[in-house]
Amino acid sequence: MSDGTSMARRTPKLSHLNERGESRMVDVSGKDITTRTAAAEAILRMEPATHAAVVQGSGPKGEVLPVARVAGIMAAKRTPEAIPMCHPLALSGVEIEFETGLKHDTKGRAGIRVLVRVKCTGRTGVEMEALHAAAVAALTIYDMVKALEKGMEVVSVRLLEKTGGKSGDWRP
Amino acid sequence: MSDGTSMARRTPKLSHLNERGESRMVDVSGKDITTRTAAAEAILRMEPATHAAVVQGSGPKGEVLPVARVAGIMAAKRTPEAIPMCHPLALSGVEIEFETGLKHDTKGRAGIRVLVRVKCTGRTGVEMEALHAAAVAALTIYDMVKALEKGMEVVSVRLLEKTGGKSGDWRP
Amino acid sequence: MSDGTSMARRTPKLSHLNERGESRMVDVSGKDITTRTAAAEAILRMEPATHAAVVQGSGPKGEVLPVARVAGIMAAKRTPEAIPMCHPLALSGVEIEFETGLKHDTKGRAGIRVLVRVKCTGRTGVEMEALHAAAVAALTIYDMVKALEKGMEVVSVRLLEKTGGKSGDWRP
Amino acid sequence: MSDGTSMARRTPKLSHLNERGESRMVDVSGKDITTRTAAAEAILRMEPATHAAVVQGSGPKGEVLPVARVAGIMAAKRTPEAIPMCHPLALSGVEIEFETGLKHDTKGRAGIRVLVRVKCTGRTGVEMEALHAAAVAALTIYDMVKALEKGMEVVSVRLLEKTGGKSGDWRP
Amino acid sequence: MSDGTSMARRTPKLSHLNERGESRMVDVSGKDITTRTAAAEAILRMEPATHAAVVQGSGPKGEVLPVARVAGIMAAKRTPEAIPMCHPLALSGVEIEFETGLKHDTKGRAGIRVLVRVKCTGRTGVEMEALHAAAVAALTIYDMVKALEKGMEVVSVRLLEKTGGKSGDWRP
Amino acid sequence: MSDGTSMARRTPKLSHLNERGESRMVDVSGKDITTRTAAAEAILRMEPATHAAVVQGSGPKGEVLPVARVAGIMAAKRTPEAIPMCHPLALSGVEIEFETGLKHDTKGRAGIRVLVRVKCTGRTGVEMEALHAAAVAALTIYDMVKALEKGMEVVSVRLLEKTGGKSGDWRP
């Protein structure tokens, strides 16, 4: 069975594709307005020396992490412009924390963890907003210290939790 | 030595911070206009069944990967709006490829690799454009199949290559 | 009677102009929140050879129409940024179909019809969102094949249907 | 011959598709920087009574056409955000004129013609900027008088002229 | 007491900072949905000759003030993109008036007053939308006549009134 | 002489209006590409207690001024989207400083001065970018402390210096 219609029937849960496999912004008008939250993380790995510069650059007068936080919060709001099938949502809150004391990974790299929490009262979830904010905040840190190390790597962007909505709560 | 000035003196390469540790869009007017390229990747890991749905959804009639490609190309152009200290750049070309035949990882997960190449003739590099496009394209795939698996993870967003500019070529 | 005030009194329905003929984003706070839909179309005319290229370019591996669909869906969301007096709206769904089998017109040109359906639960209608999406999707097709034929023409952008709201349903 | 590669070989001019039929923002870095212009039009048809309201609403104090002009100029600048494969361009000038004295069409409808001229010194043409501006300006007029007549129709969005660039000048 | 936590405890009302002094988009999901309004002004001072040009340029055929009005209305809608911690809001109405007959100030400068009124039914106020629109409208006038006088000055951007919400009505 | 044409002839320097008084993005393609700079300021006045909160909130852990700086830098880049007739420009640098030790004004209010410097190599000046960034940075400070004092006022947004371009250098 190689035709598109059959494929779509076999994968009915791909809500952003219609029965012909064409993309759409799926109709959520029948869904309830409930309070929904999502938490996501991104982890950026770098040499210990780079890590020290970020942490110092975010110290008394430096602004690496504050800039990354603003970038992440603004990215959360701009998610429906970046991710084509995302619904516009009136976010009610966004918080971003940085955890800089991660253990070195197996390659001896230090890490910074971006933790994003998004809240909304609406008809659809805010998972993408949390993931998008986490990725953009991590890339903003990269941008601000890339002169020191171009080989930094975002090693994990993933959803940590989701609450609210018909599909209920989710944790990995 | 706890004052910001000293810290900045010790990390002179953080070009997006001034001597007081304050963020800025660093002045590049003295840099040469040269052709610059960057390549970046993002790898999205998922269950083999989800992977099959993406690949089929991108088949004869489905549109998961084409939508992700558009999202990535548009994200490349919108990088200076997302990453606060990035310079506006007149990109001259963006290409995005998807590699769907990755080997399973140690957790038995299938993978899709997003490969982005960006080109520009200007005063500063396009690393952030390539990284941003790769991350947004990967998150767009996530968005389109998240109904099947919320636990998908972007496991690597990193620069693969950079050419042009005063700092010259770079590869990991 | 040449003064603006009189003019405005004679055309009381121009809701985006106040009594002095000045533009405004008209206050809709007193309107009910209801489910509203709109459908619009845009028809792009081109030489049969160009038409064949579009249809083939949208075939097994080509991506003309998928890209145009994404462009249209994103344009629907961005309507209040493009059309100055449009209210921001939390769209609940957008679908775009392409009909490629139109009869040739009197000039022997083949055609592609873009059909957009938009849905929203809010205080004002989504006609502009549907029209804007249709126009942008048609222009995106133009962009992707303009190397073949610069003389393509969008011959009709119009509203096909509107439901919901105080003014009720409408069809041409 | 049904495979994508063959198709692409037969339509080598679809520059925004690569040899596999995948979309891309085509590399223009090898093109010359020259002064390029484009002119485009959009014609909006409406009942004579609606037409009178627009013209009056644009009179001594009314602002329909000035608002549409601003919308069109801003749309020209925002073209690479709306049309996915368009290159970002530093436009050097945009002018929009409205011609309100068109002859009635065969259906007895009055008309307003939006005429857009765009200029740029860069590596690629500004046809899409002119077309996009014309379409958005026409839809803005529609928006501002739609309370009077929802059946208005944009009957022609087309390129009138293009100058500059390797492909040289073009007129219909 | 120099640590951040103590500082935050002493200034508990800085709602866009958390208890560690870090920025956030504060959670408003617990606030009531009520109708909220705000009015703000911006006053632009200029030489009397420049003032005459603006007023004439806004006369029978000129478009300085209509363009500034559109800029202000669009800025109101775009406030959450400009002011990082602002919540996205579905504005229900925006009106902008210009008062050109201000008395000269003590430096003999004429003035134009931009008066903005914004309305919204939502969980948070629209003060920033009104202030942002006023500032952008005033700067747009500056832009359109700056060839005559670069020394123009926006001498007052301030809130005039706010109604609705838990904190109730406010006037200076 | 009441007709628009005459008016326009008398004020030939309003470059963003054509000879009919209609707005346009004036053609700058004939201007030289030179390095241009602009400096602008905005001064925000507030009660001394509010001022203390801002300064503390910007201290060891607080982020009021860093957030305002990011907002200003991003606003500089987004100027052509906010100010309708502004040309898109590839800014080469933006720096924002805050001066918090202003003398109290005659009303006993403390003040914060936002100082913006913008640099660009292009065909037109960056005055609007500097002014826009200053205004948005000042309003961002307002937003972050408005819970303490809604009566804060931006008392001066003005150009401090401009260099480069045909019209040469300018200082008040």
Give me the secondary-structure topology.
The structure is a homohexamer of 172-residue chains.
Chain A: H1 4-10, E1 34-46, H2 48-57, H3 64-77, H4 79-82, E2 91-99, E3 110-122, H5 127-145, E4 153-163
Antiparallel strand pairs in A: 1-3, 1-4, 2-3
Helix pairs in contact in A: 3-5
Outline:
By secondary structure, chain A is α+β, with helices and mostly antiparallel strands. Helix content of chain A is 31%, strand content 27%. Chains in contact: A-B, A-C, A-E, A-F, B-C, B-D, B-F, C-D, C-E, D-E, D-F, E-F.
Tags for this model:
homohexamer; 172 residues; alpha+beta; Alpha-Beta Plaits; four-stranded antiparallel beta sheet; elongated; disordered N terminus
Number of helices of chain A: 5
CATH class annotation of chain A: Alpha Beta
Total beta-strand segments of chain A: 4
Strand order of the largest sheet of chain A: 2-3-1-4
- Count of structural domains of chain A: 1
C-alpha termini separation of chain A: 33 Å
Percent in helix of chain A: 25-40%
Unreliable stretches of chain A: 1-12
- Class per helix and strand makeup of chain A: alpha+beta
CATH topology name of chain A: Alpha-Beta Plaits
Described by its quaternary structure, the protein is homohexamer
* Large-scale geometry of chain A: elongated
